[in-house]
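Lab notebook, bench 4. The sequencing result for the construct came back, and we need a structural model before the next group meeting so we can plan mutations. Quick request posted to the team channel:

Model the 3D structure of this chain.
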Amino acid sequence: LFPQKEMEQNRILTFARLKKFLYRRQIIPEIYYFYLSKLYRMRFYKFVIVSMCLFISACTQAQQQREIKSSEFMKNLKKGKNIEIANKIILDDVDFTSSENLQMLSSNQLQNVVEGNIFFTNCIFMGKVTAVGEYKSVAVQTKFNNNLVFQDCDFRGDVVFDNAVIMGSANFSKAKFRKDASFNNIMVWAKDSYFSEVEAEGTMNMIYATFNGNLYMRDAVFQQAVSFQGMIVQGMFAASGMKCSKMAEFDMLTVGQRANFNYSSFAQQPTFNQARFHDDADFVGDTLNNMNEVFEKTYIYGKLQIDDTVYPSSGNVEQILQQKGESIK
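Done. Here's the predicted structure in token form:
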């Protein structure tokens, strides 16, 4: 019997000689690896399987850490604290009328007051997000005393902020609305409000909404019907690059400062009937036809620019369009 050390040396020597023999005979190296490295391949496969299991487990834990329920932040909101949430998936409905700070507006109307700032960034809302509710058969609306921010968020359910009062900024920039979104009769008091680059896959309405400052809605995309009927923007309305795949209503729109609709795209003819522009209004590069139907009983008190033509006089737009404008070329 050989000592154990000598047996190991002989095994290594035999292994090396066989390897040299196979290469000298120009036998395919893969055959050598198949027969002589089976043990190591099996170890490698085990390593890969274990690594994949660990990776899947880590991904599952990371996903679970991203998922939260609305109760986790609503309890802080009820205490008047600010909430700042980023990169989370909210699994259930979010109801801002549940903060339990109710005030009587009338015999059939209650108002829930939210004191804290609300900041959501890059979050996914799987359920409904609403600021409208009911308490003992009495309708409840919501007043936000500070900022309301849903930047770069993905709403998978309906969004309802009807009759909401927002004392701070309203920021929904780059938000995606997968279903219907309703902002009817909201009142925003901030200097600037942002709905730029929003994408609405369902209907979106801002009927009789009031913005007491500027409203930025550049490059917004509306795949279904959208209505801004009766909306009031006390400041500037920046809506350049807007894309509307269905009907877009701007009837009775009121804009206090400059309105910019340059390079907007309308698949169907939009309507600005009875709208009021108290400053300049720009429609350069837009898909507008039959102007009399677009601007029926519409008044402008600044300069109207349509493509390369500027109409300097103010008054009834239908009458202005019958005049000869000034070319800017």
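Residues 208 and 230 are 4 Å apart (CA to CA).
Will bring this to the meeting.
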